[in-house]
Specification:
The chain is an alpha/beta fold. It folds into three domains: 226 residues, Rossmann fold (3-Layer(aba) Sandwich), CATH 3.40.50; 166 residues, FAD/NAD(P)-binding domain, CATH 3.50.50; 159 residues, D-Amino Acid Oxidase, subunit A, domain 2 (D-Amino Acid Oxidase, Chain A, domain 2). Helices cover 28% and strands 23% of the residues. The chain has 20 helices and 30 strands. The strands form six sheets. Strands 5-6-4-3-7-8-10-9 form an eight-stranded mixed sheet, with helices on both faces. Strands 15, 16, 23, 24, 25, 26, 27 and 28 form an eight-stranded mixed sheet that branches.
């Protein structure tokens, strides 16, 4: 985006000093809290309204030719048309951008990628990974206004603008992964300081292939306006994340930029700039210390033949999402389970998708929050796929109200969050939205994007993927060899069977330790969910949306297929209550005493429910599952020690439907040599080999 139109009226009229708001002062003291961009709309010399940065007093782009500039500077001078066209099947090309701004560079790249895929059949399984950073992200309302203008000026972008705006994340720090499956495009938006964000990109050289950046878009505001995007720390990260033949392009020819690129191993070249800009810079990494024969200018090395088939053991939510993440990267997946998919703890009639909140300044490294946001986006995308297949919706958007009876956050801290993620309602609003009349709801957390996940619909949608094949098999032995992994087991007919693959991912919850003793023997926690069919009179008085207290309750109407796994009545309303929490108990029989515990929790938290929830629990139904939990409450995700082909994803506790999607993405990226959407520090906290898992539970 242009940063140099000195003759524009904007530049003439832009104030030299921009006073910091109270919010900016507060956020400067807490750098993990995001300050949204302050957009100042002004008129340029040609009469067009253009956005100006209130932080830096510089234009985001020239309305007259910003798109052409993006194509000239970043696409043409990173040789993207030629390089992307030469990608091999399953190959991934990774772009990193400094300064997401209005998203114009992404839109231009996306359009080019789709054009090439339409013309080049071998790109059907190739992937594009676009990583971008932004410290002052534009609020959705402003971004919508800006991109509507671009849609009018460049109609070819409209089909990309809508899905981008739909997926645009709330403005909180950390990595926000956006998936556009039809185009094999992954977009990671890292909100926060660029040097910090780049520093969090994980490069584990013990894993092969190792990820790196193929092309850099250096698109920060001009060095004279925003020196932080041209600081030594940025270029040090560029050097760490690049390999020989990595390219870079920037509109800037400032001396500080030229010297910094050269010092971190790039050979620079001045070429003709765009429009009034006489010159710009291109660069190619040539540092011999980073030499690696496995890489070329065309992108990360094509996947070796051994990366074509993976076995996933366990068909609960972790196994299903792992299979999905791998299959969408072109990997054939054999999904195995000793019983049916979702037969274990993941098979409840519904799961409440609602995060365990944390104060905002911790959110960028809070797996629950980042996982919840990604899961929400993924399930909404899958709803469209499910609709095409005639499958019930995966996510029913209901919102949820947390009564803050058992929470790590108060209303003052909730106020720091963007309203589209979390807010506090007035007592009257909370009563209206929940349907509760007598409850004091002054203390509450409202989650507008929360909803109910239909596990059966998710399972059915995932199993429609042509590269995922489910097979019932009770695995009894796993043998890792130099070139493959062999599993042995018995099928439902008690016949012995062996299957070989290139990798194995164990997603077998508490049975994982039985399959490989290197896997931590986790704490087992029995959880029983209860439900009943209310009368019409009871149903009219039940809460209108899911509620969280010391447990949770939620109404749902059973869909076709729900009765495959659970005793529900298709088309009838049900109320879910739960769940119980019993340590070191692996029995899965349904117990009336735990029905009673769930009822008592609800009526204690919400006394007005006492006269509505039936006291006769003899006809209630339930499902008990065994949750797997680590001592530090983090899941286990990564490669097993002393292994090259065995991986693990387990111990999601009670948050599998919120955590499994983002963890599966991270695992698939680690397996295939891409950058995960989790920081290096977070991946260390999830590692199967972390210190906290070296001492057995007593």
């Amino acid at each position: 985006m242009c940063r140099y139109y000195s003759s524009l009226t904007i530049a003439k009229n832009a104030p030299k000093n921009f006073a910091m708001s109270n919010a900016q002062i507060k956020n400067a003291e807490q750098p993990n809290i995001i300050t949204p961009a302050n957009i100042d709309w002004q008129t340029d010399d040609t009469g067009n309204r253009v956005p100006v940065s209130g932080e830096f007093g510089d234009v985001y782009f020239s309305h007259a030719d910003g798109l052409a500039e993006s194509r000239h500077v970043f696409l043409a001078h990173n040789q993207l048309p030629a390089r992307l066209a030469k990608l091999a099947p399953k190959q991934c090309f990774t772009i990193a951008e400094l300064g997401f701004g209005t998203g114009l560079n992404l839109l231009a790249t996306w359009q080019l990628w789709r054009q090439l895929r339409d013309k080049q059949p071998q790109l059907a399984t190739a992937r594009l990974h676009f990583i971008t950073t932004e410290k002052y992200p534009i609020p959705l309302a402003d971004l919508t206004q800006i991109l509507i203008l671009w849609g009018q000026r460049a109609p070819e972008l409209t089909e990309f603008i809508k899905p981008l705006l739909t997926a645009y994340p709330p403005l909180i720090a950390g990595c926000h992964r956006l998936k556009f499956f039809e185009d094999n495009l992954t977009v990671d938006i890292w909100l926060g300081d660029a040097a910090d964000s780049l520093g969090k990109l994980a490069v584990d050289t013990s894993l092969k292939p190792t990820p790196y950046i193929d092309a850099w878009f250096l698109d920060g505001f001009a060095p004279s306006c925003n020196s932080s995007l041209w600081a030594d720390a940025i270029f040090a990260q560029m050097q760490r994340l690049s390999r020989p033949m990595t390219t870079a392009a920037t509109y800037s020819c400032a001396g500080i930029v030229k010297r910094a690129l050269q010092e971190c191993g790039f050979q620079i070249k001045k070429v003709k700039g765009f429009g009034r800009k006489r010159e710009m810079l291109t660069a190619v990494m040539s540092d011999p210390k980073l030499a690696d024969d496995n890489h070329s200018i065309n992108g990360n090395a094509a996947l070796p033949s051994e990366q074509s088939h993976t076995i996933v053991i366990g068909a609960g939510v972790s196994g299903l999402l792992t299979a999905w993440a791998l299959a969408n990267r072109g990997i054939q997946v054999s999904l195995l389970d000793k019983s049916a998919p979702l037969a274990g703890a993941s098979g409840n009639p519904r799961a409440l998708l609602a995060p365990k909140m944390t104060p905002l300044h911790h959110v960028d490294e809070h797996l629950h929050s980042i996982g919840y946001l990604y899961s929400n986006r993924l399930y909404r995308l899958l709803n469209k796929r499910a609709e095409k297949e005639g499958i019930a919706p995966i996510l029913e958007a209901t919102g949820a109200l947390d009564l803050l009876i058992k929470a790590n956050i108060g209303t003052e801290q909730i106020a720091d969050y963007p309203d589209d993620m979390a807010n506090t309602l007035s007592c009257e609003q909370a009563q209206n939205v929940s349907g509760l009349k007598a409850q004091n709801l002054l203390e509450n957390l409202y989650l507008p994007q929360s909803g109910l996940v239909n596990p059966q619909a998710l399972k059915n949608t995932i199993l429609t993927h042509p590269l995922i094949h489910f097979q019932q098999l009770d695995v009894t032995n796993i043998s890792e060899m130099e070139g493959s992994v062999c599993i042995e087991g018995s099928n439902q007919d008690k016949g012995l069977l062996s299957i070989s693959a290139d990798n194995v991912v164990i997603c077998a919850a508490y049975d994982s330790h039985k399959l490989d003793k290197r896997i931590f023997d986790c704490r087992k926690i029995r959880g029983q969910l209860s439900w009943f069919v209310p009368t019409a009179e009871q149903y009219a008085k039940l809460p209108k949306i899911p509620l969280k207290y010391s447990g949770y309750c939620a109404s749902f109407i059973a869909q076709t297929g729900d009765d495959d796994l659970n005793k529900v009545i298709t088309g009838a309303p049900h109320l879910l209550l739960g769940a119980s929490f019993v340590r070191n108990d692996t029995d899965t029989d349904v117990r009336n005493e735990e029905h009673q515990i769930s009822r008592d929790k609800l009526v204690t938290a919400i006394p007005e429910m006492k006269s509505i929830i039936p006291t006769d629990i003899s006809l209630w139904q339930g499902r008990a599952g065994i949750r797997t939990q680590t001592p530090d409450y983090h899941p286990i995700v990564g490669q097993l020690a002393r292994s090259k082909r065995m991986w693990l994803m387990s111990a999601m506790g009670a948050k599998g439907y919120a955590l499994a999607p983002i963890c599966a993405e991270a695992l698939a990226d680690m397996m295939l040599g891409s950058f995960p959407p989790l920081s290096t520090a977070m991946l260390a906290r999830l590692s199967p080999n972390r210190t906290r898992l070296q001492t057995p539970l007593i």
